TrEMBL record:
Domain of life, per lineage: Bacteria
SUPFAM superfamilies in alphabetical order: FAD/NAD(P)-binding domain (SSF51905)
Natural source organism: Methylobacterium phyllostachyos
Domain (FAD dependent oxidoreductase): residue spans on this chain: 8-400
Listed Gene3D superfamilies: D-Amino Acid Oxidase, subunit A, domain 2 (3.30.9.10), FAD/NAD(P)-binding domain (3.50.50.60)
Keywords tagged on the record: Oxidoreductase
Gene Ontology CC annotations of this record: cytoplasm
Pfam families (alphabetical): DAO (PF01266)
Descriptive protein name: D-amino-acid dehydrogenase
Amino acid sequence: MASDETADIVVVGGGMVGLASAIALKDRGLDVALCDPGEARARTSYGNAGVVSRGSILPMSSPALWGKLPAYLRNADRSLRLNHAHLPRVLPYAAHFLASARAARWRRAAEALLPLTSAAYPAHERLAARAGTGDRLQRTGWLKAYRTEDAFTAAALEREILAGHGVAFEILDGAAVQEAEPALVRPYARAMLLTETGSVREPGRLIEACEALFAGLGGRRLRGSVTRLAREAEGWRIDLEAGTVRARQVVLAAGAASGAIARTLGYRFAVAAERGYHRHYALHPESPPLTRPVLDTGAGSILSPMGDRRVRVLSGVELNARDAAPDHTQIEAASREAAGTLRLGGPLDNEPWLGSRPSTPDGMPVIGKAPRHDGLIFAFGHGHIGLSTGPITGEIVADLATGRTPAVPVAAFAPDRLLRWPRLF
Ligand SMILES: Cc1cc2nc3c(=O)[nH]c(=O)nc-3n(C[C@H](O)[C@H](O)[C@H](O)COP(=O)(O)OP(=O)(O)OC[C@H]3O[C@@H](n4cnc5c(N)ncnc54)[C@H](O)[C@@H]3O)c2cc1C
């Protein structure tokens, strides 16, 4: 790469959020350069469950957290695994997370997220149509399955909030679960079928197709990691491992790496990496197909169909340093549970995949202009819903960069809410 490259705007990070932003910015006639190391599997957007749901409005920091806290701290709940040694490094995040786990805040977050998640599926349809991946997006709904009546009852507040916001769902009893998803061999007491939900088969293929779309629009890819952002008199200097690019504006969309990059400008965000794993299995030849993603709440894991009768088994959350060595405890447990839920063959890949959800403690992304620097837009922290809300975030970013009012209100996603924490690390 030449060291004197210039662009109107540089997008840092080529996952779902960065690519969608780069494409939407090209659509507005800007000269766009996208910086990314270019390793497909390094993107969280590659390895997720593919769920695109209007109902994904309820952050992890739920009021139920308080009851589960003792089990979480002992690593006795499959949905969360803590590296205790890492906790001091994420204290601001953890403190903010606990503060968010109140019913009133949960309701407020749901209200703020609803316009974003409501716009997510249509934005996916628009993008998939242009990228030629429309057949990978299927509106099959998704199932949240409960093994016991007690577990279903414990989720009553979630259903109340979803119903209050007009999110469509059906409650299924055990027999109806079996009828809806005959591939499930485990008996479930109840399930919630979120009918407005779709899913992307092989999200990695969508990402590849978006890269091709961006290139076809004349977008430039600069391979390499951004090491530093610096404000200059005329605009921005973006330092990569090899070379420099200058631009009038920058979009920081580097997923879970965004917090570290923002620090080069003095922003200390209360964010963390919520790591997650997946592994693929073939369905037994005599099993009916799995038609939609299933969240097995008892296992704290998701089973997602990826096409060709392949099932992606996904683990819950591991709170750990982004670059710590993999810990396969959760994905091994999820795989054992999956073997009792579906008729599966052996694993199809040698090693489980590992990725990091770019997580904020209140479960809402950071989308907005940087409070202390002109020409810098933050677009990260999409946590559990970044595949879903990436395409609409891209459209919002393009609005912000070109001085338009975003179609989706973003005041609740303002960066400064996560900058008000003491410098503990
Ligand atoms: C197990 C699991 C299941 C999930 N399931 C779902 C789901 O069903 N639905 C859903 O909506 N979401 C889901 N998610 C979350 C979703 O995958 C993420 O929110 C989303 O992928 C984040 O997109 P992103 O573009 O912000 O980050 P990423 O996809 O991680 O992209 C960030 C990019 O920035 C690049 N980068 C990093 N550092 C630098 C640097 N210094 N310079 C330049 N580039 C850099 C990276 O290489 C990467 O390409 C899941 C996540 C996990 C882990």
